[in-house]
Each structure stands twice: as C-alpha cells, then as structure tokens.
Amino acid sequence: MSLTSRVPIPGARARQGLTCPYCFAVVPLQDVRFRCRGRAGRRPGCEPVLDETLAEYLGSTAGASLPPVFSATGRRTRAACPGCGQETGNRVCPECHNPLPSAYCDSPGRIVALVGAKNAGKSTYIAVLLHELMNRVGTELDASLVACDDRTIDRYKRDFARPLLEERRLLPTTTSAATSAREPLVYLLTRTRTRRGRGPRLGGGRRTESLALVLFDTAGEDLRSRQVTDLHLRYLEAADAIIFLVDPLELPGARASVAAVPPGPGTGDDPDSEPINIIARVTDALRARHGTPPGRRLPVPVAVALTKIDALRPGLLRQSALHRTRGGEGALDLDDREAVDAQVRALLHEWHAGQLDVYLDQQYADYALFGVSALGGMPEDGRVGPGGVRPYRAEDPLLWLLYRFGMLDGVRPQPAGLDSGG
Ligand SMILES: Nc1nc2c(ncn2[C@@H]2O[C@H](COP(=O)(O)OP(=O)(O)OP(=O)(O)O)[C@@H](O)[C@H]2O)c(=O)[nH]1
Ligand SMILES: [Mg+2]
Ligand SMILES: [Zn+2]
Ligand SMILES: [Zn+2]
C-alpha cells in the first residue's frame, strides 16, 4: 500500500484569510493589526491604555491595559507604531485584539476542536494531553508546544496542571459558558522536519510546520441543549479537525466490560447526553455551517476516542492492540493505527453501540477510532489513584491528525523494506 496516498485535507481549503484562534473570525491578512511593544526599561514606547475591544472579549478589564493597537499592512511582519515610532512585530486580530503569533500568520494554522458529553473526560484529557506534548511526546516528535498568550499559560497552570498533576485532585465539572466567560487555550505546535534524501541545496531540507491547537474546554452541559452557543458554533465551524471524546461507561452495553463502575455523577438515562446524540447535534451544526448537502459526507477529519479505557476489564485488553504500548519513533505506526481502529470498532459493536460507527461512517468521509486513558487508572475519593497520573495512548488522536495534516510520517515497521513515506 502506498504510504503517500493521503487525501487532501479540508483544512487546506482556500480560506479568504486566517481564522483567529480566539474569536474564530476569518481575517484577511492585510487587515491584521499590530500592537506597540510599549515602554520597557530604557527602551522608549507607548504607555498602556485600556484596550476596550480586548476587554469586551475577556468580559473584564483585568489584563486589558496594554500598549495601543494600530493599523498597518498586516501582510508585513513588522510595522512602526505611529505613536512612538518603534517597530513592532506583535500582530493582533482586528476583531478581538488577541495576539496572532507570526508562525500562525505565516503558515496556515490548523484548528483542532475537542468535544464530548458531560463527564466524558474532556478537562482531564486536555490537562494530560498538553502535559504530554510539552514533555515526552514533544521530545519524541521534536516538536515544541508554545502558549500563544499569557492567559493560556496562567489558566493551564491554575485550572488544569496544578490541581490534577501536582495536587492530584480530580478536576471540577466545567461550568457552563452561560455563567462564566469561556476562552480557548491557544497553543502553537511547531515541528521542524528534516526531509530525508534532500540536500540543503534543494530548499534547505528542513521545513517548519505549525499547528494551532485551540482547545476549548466546553462544558458537557452546553452541548446537551440544542441551543449551542454562537461561540461554540464558530469554534466548530473553524475547526480543521475534531476530536470527539466518548466515555465508554455511558454506552449501555459496555457496563459488563467494566472492571468497576466508578462512583460519581453519571449522566444516567438522559438521552440528550448519550454520546451518539451529542455527536449528532454537533454534526447537524457542522452540516448547516459548511452547507454540506444531505448524502454528502463531511470532509473534516474526526478522531473519536473512547476515554477511561483503564476502566475496562483487564481480560478485555489483554492480547489487544489497545494494550500494546505504542512504539515511539516520531512517526505514526500505520499497522498499529489500523489494529487499534479495528479493535475499538469491534468493542463498539460488541457493546451494541455499532450505530455510532455506522453513523460516523455515514456522516464523515474521514474518521478514526481510538482508545485513550488520561489518568491511567481508577480515581479514588475525588483524587487520582495511588500510582499518580499515568496516561496511556492519550496522544494517539493528535498523532493521527498530524499525519493527516502531512506533519508526521506514516511508517509500517513490518515488513521491512517499505519506504517510510513522508
Ligand atoms: N478511570 C478513569 N476515569 C477518568 C479518566 N478521565 C476522567 N475520568 C473520570 O471522569 C470524570 C470526569 O472527567 P472530566 O475531565 O471532568 O470530564 P469533562 O468532560 O470535563 O466533564 P464536564 O466538565 O462536566 O463536561 C473525572 O472526575 C474522573 O472521575 C481516565 O482516564 N480514567
Ligand atoms: Mg470539564
Ligand atoms: Zn507605540
Ligand atoms: Zn479574534
């Protein structure tokens, strides 16, 4: 099988400009604005002023006093501030005044959205995935994960890393966007690839590619109602790829496969919270937004991941692809990928949740199934289990998406002799 037979990615669809990863407005490049660097030490510059546009986005004036924003041609990477004459390379979105990192302006960023029902494990997954990308997986991929703004850094520490990873407390239920302002965590994942067999004279042999990882920790509650808020819709519409998280404990047929049903707030018999209904609601919204005619499948790549797979009976995992540890070579092992996909599909059918698979196949041209565990073990009394957080295959959906985006090679370790693609 050819390893280069990747289909074109819809994310590469010609956009009229770039999509702001904060407010999801589509901005023509020439309309991108600049923010003065401000005064620092002996360097002259403008004084901070209240940025009302940013304050409106934040829903608060805290953190919105910054050096002024000005217009200049956003196609350039730098511009001189009309107030103080100093050059700045800080570009911002004209709609919400959030920073647009140059790597994001210069290479078409890709937005990955994360969705799931209440209690599916979204917040826990975000905490762990980001940690993995900043550490083990980042090293393996030779990729750096950099937060695009200080608020992302602060919020990741305060709401995710500190409670879950340091204090080992389970994360609280995410509050509804109706009661508290919601803002995405915006990161840039940058990977430098050295193209094998290409000398530096042929374009340098090194290519830097970026992916905007925009994680919007939606409250499951907000996806329950049909009135998905406008920001949610814009988020989903802007997404070049979607990760759906599904709690297997919510699949009625899976109960028998679970080692112990965890205590805590299950969603019970509420049909609005069933995974397939959440996915259907999001799919309807996507269809409306993309104007996809009925009968045609949506082109957005979708990774559907069963969460909490540590909760499945050990017997079920033994001898299974899910149980195998992924070999980490900075490439996607396509044999392993197919084996996991087939196993999760078999589990869904065994659990009488085959309709989920059928539905995805009808609606999406490109979807893949995963099994992940963010915690790696059952939590106890509101805390992470005694072994600490030991994530398991948490990065798999993201690796697959990187592969789909052409940012990661696919390899088949067996049989030997195949070109490793790329
Ligand atoms: N066994 C196991 N349990 C998990 C795992 N991840 C999450 N959980 C459990 O699922 C609960 C909900 O996880 P959250 O990450 O808060 O879920 P959420 O999707 O953010 O929920 P809402 O914010 O209410 O929409 C946690 O409190 C844990 O009890 C996991 O990897 N393994
Ligand atoms: Mg949450
Ligand atoms: Zn200035
Ligand atoms: Zn914006």
Report what the structure shows:
This protein is α/β, with parallel strands linked by helices. The protein contains twelve helices and 18 strands. It has helices at residues 52-58, 102-106, 122-134, 136-141, 150-166, 220-224, 230-238, 275-290, 314-317, 334-350, 354-363, 396-404; strands at 18-19, 26-27, 33-35, 49-50, 65-66, 69-70, 79-80, 87-88, 91-92, 112-116, 143-147, 185-194, 206-215, 241-246, 302-306, 332-333, 367-371, 410-411. The strands form seven sheets. It has a four-stranded parallel sheet, with helices on both faces. Strands 6-3-9 form a three-stranded antiparallel sheet, with no helix packed on it. The model is unreliable at 1-15 and 417-422 (pLDDT under 50). It comes from Actinomadura miaoliensis.
